[in-house]
Amino acid sequence: MQTKTQTKMPVIFMLAIILTLCAAPAPCWAGRHATPNMMGALGLNTVPSARMDAPGTVRLHGGGLAPYLHASAGIQLAEPLYIAIRQSAQSTDLTGDPDRLYPGIDLRLRLAKETAVTPEITLGLQSAIGHKRMGAEYLAFSKRYERFDFTGGIAWGRLGSAAHIDNPLKVLGGHFGKRRAFDQEMPNGPEDWFTGEDVGFFAGLEYFTPLDGLSLKADWGADRYSKEKQIFAYDPPDPWSVGVNFSPADWISIGGAVVGGEKLLASLSLQSPAEDWIGRSYRKHKAPYMRPYRTGLGLPQEMALAAQRDDIQLYEMRGDLYNAEGKLLLDPQRPMPLQIGHAARHMANHAGEVVETLGITPLSYGLEGHEITLLRRDLEQAVTRQQGSPQEIWRNVSFDPGAEGKGFWHDRFNIYDSHRLRLILDNQVSLSEEDSGLLYRTGLILEEERKLAEHIWAGGSLRLDLKDNLHHLNTYRPAAILPVRSNVDAFAQRTLSLDRSFLSWMTTLKPDLHVSLKGGLLEEMYAGAGGEVLYRPFGKTFAIGAEAWQVFKRDPYAFLNLGLNGDHLMTGHIQGWYEFPNSDVTLHARIGRYLAEDFGGTLALSRQFENGAKMEAFVTATNAGDFDVFGGLTHLYSGVKLRLPFGHVKHIPEGSEIRLTAAPLGRDAGQALDTPMPLYEISEPLSYRHITRHWNDVVE
């Protein structure tokens, strides 16, 4: 058994490196990027650093050092937060099936940015949720000087198994000093974080050579492979490593190293910021012509007709001597300020000589936003004379609440027919299984939404399953008596199915208070009926809502999955959203009853980019658990989602997108209904945040 004194690197040397980082002078470094370690986190060869990717970066990584191979998919969700789903495979033969799989969710949170005198500090949780074998926590410190990037840190769990000193957190209570077990099948969780009798130190550096994209790495780790030595007599290498990393382009990174003079490490990473995605939700169209002069009388009906010829749904035009007003049905794929600017041009063209204000009330799927009033003169200056700007228009914009509840039960049919068609390439993958290295399912969804009346919409979609490897999904797992999603393999077997078919009624009762009722085939696996209510105050950073649904499980063996198998239940949640100021990041929390009739809550962080790309990370905890094939039980369900638009491509419907969901497949606990047209999502174009983020488009 290894003792605290059995180490080839003096503890004093490690502490000296960490202290040196705090006293190093200001960096003289630019144009070089930190690179990943063997497990996918930014770092050296075998140890992590405190560095973070650019916000919005998506990273796919593969790396290996015997006896493990690692694959991960991660996103830099916000500037200080990185989340990755990782699968680690124990294998003695690279060409054969793995002996064991150890999945996990890795988190990194930056605590402090680097300054002229202080290092960057990051808190990391390896396998924060996942198998205990890879569980570790660490504090990493990184400081740049010239072409060098120094790193040092302290680690708990696996990465600190060198046991250099006693766990310093034991002074806070006996909980932190409890023995850390790496071979239990129960998943790692918050109760295990920062526990263990001892901790270890790690250190190293990366040198960025004059050759662009080439760097050299050296580190000394504190992972002693203690459990591997006990279980299968593994002979670990010495804890030092030297290696090289080459990035011929920003989107690829290739690494290799010699570890302990006897083993080889290799890694490959592909990464790109989501904001650099070349796709968009819509194709650019020529902006409507705006007359450089005023003439004639105000003609409200001519405003609507001219807009309609340009595919702009402007109606209920009204006004007086100095004001013109109307309602605008928004296209959900285009920024609302862009559509406001185009509609305002048609209004100005037919407003006569004396009208000075243009008021437009936007509607999204029947939900009503605040009326936006522009000064006609500001628009004329910016568009026809090129002597103004969006910022100058903004100075005189006013917002007025509408929606006083008039016509609550009244609806108008045939207010301009509207339908929206889009194509979705849906990809579901799981790196979170202990019985399968990678599960996947790919399908093509053709989705249409059609307006039947001002507040009534119909929706439907067809799913074409293209490829999957779910046929052995439940070969080894305990079969559920009443499956929630554990029979996804049966749904995937049908080549063509009716994914959704529903009716929806949505309206705004009072300013900022929206409601909806929906019924039909709500998602691939469930039919039913229910509703939502959402309070989203304009100009505020929060929203609250509630939902309730009576649902029935669909039969995967019926034609187009149209049958119901008799299982029914009530599900519902109370929800809240918080928009972080001066950012495009949203925190979503929900608590309530899930589809397995389990109770719990979900936390999710999402980020929306101007090009329409969206990423999200979520975790759900409930009072029910899913068993794995080794007898472990987990109450957590987590994953990441990514949406990439490609609706700008010729002959492809606008709004089309690629979806990637990396989350466990075939789980029953913690599953929520995937409802169509959720109120928070369809009210986003009406929000103050959306308007301010896209305001420059008002003159496009």
Which spans have pLDDT < 50 for at least 5 consecutive residues?
A: 1-31, 405-410
The helix content, as a percent range, equals 10-25%
Sheet/helix structural class? mainly beta
Mean pLDDT: 88
Main β-sheet: number of strands, strand sense, barrel status?
13 strands, mixed, barrel
Instruction: Report the count of strand segments.
Output: 32
Number of domains: 2
Instruction: State which percent range the strand residues make up.
Output: over 45%
**In angstroms, what separates the terminal alpha carbons?**
70 Å
Total helical segments: 9
Strand order of the largest sheet: 20-21-22-23-24-25-26-27-28-29-30-31-32
Q: What value does the Rg take, in angstroms?
A: 28 Å
Shape: globular
Oligomer: single chain
What would you note in describing this structure?
- The protein is mainly beta.
- It has two domains: 11-273, Beta Barrel (Porin), CATH 2.40.160.40; 416-675 and 685-689.
- A 13-stranded mixed β-barrel has the order 20-21-22-23-24-25-26-27-28-29-30-31-32. A twelve-stranded antiparallel beta barrel has the order 1-2-3-4-5-6-7-9-10-11-12-13.
- The chain is globular.
Task: Describe, in short, the structure shown.
The chain is mainly beta and 700 residues long. The protein is globular, with a radius of gyration of 28 Å.
